[in-house]
Amino acid sequence: MVANRSKADPQYEKTFPALPLAEAKRMRNFVIHGYDQVNVTVVWETAKNDIPDLRNKVTNIIAHRQAARNRNEEK
Predict the structure, then answer these.
(1) What is the count of structural domains for the chain?
(2) Taking the complete model, does pTM exceed 0.70, yes or no?
(3) Cβ of 30: how many Cβ atoms within 10 Å?
(4) Which one in 4, 37, 40, 75 has a CA-CA gap of 20 to 30 Å to 68?
(5) 57 lies in which domain range?
(6) Residue 73: left (phi > 0), alpha (psi -120 to 50), or beta?
(7) For residues 54 and 20, is the Cβ–Cβ distance under 8 A?
């Protein structure tokens, strides 16, 4: 989903430089198109070690954007 969002909006990567969008896109493409070559250990390690950090970053971005939207609505 994150990779698809950045594909739809080229400015997305510039807006959210803390997100590893290029890496997410590469992983997605490899899993989708090279599924017969996927190393399950690498996928598991990525899910276990990298996804929680990515989730926290996305959650923080959503919270900040929502707070900014709420402030704008109060004006």
Answers:
(1) 1
(2) no
(3) 15
(4) 4
(5) 2-74
(6) alpha
(7) yes
Residues 26, 60, 20, CA angle at the centre, nearest 5°?
15
Q: What is the DSSP string of 9-72?
A: -TTHHHH-TTS-HHHHHHHHHHHHH-GGG--HHHHHHHHHHTHHHHHHHHHHHHHHHHHHHHHH
Digit-coded pLDDT (tens) for 24-48: 888 888 888 987 898 999 999 999 9
- Would you state the pLDDT for residue 30? 86
Is the four-CA dihedral 18, 8, 58, 49 of positive or negative sign?
Answer: negative
Q: What's the whole-number average pLDDT of the chain?
A: 84
Residue reference for tokens 């276990």: 48
- What pLDDT shows up at residue 3? 59
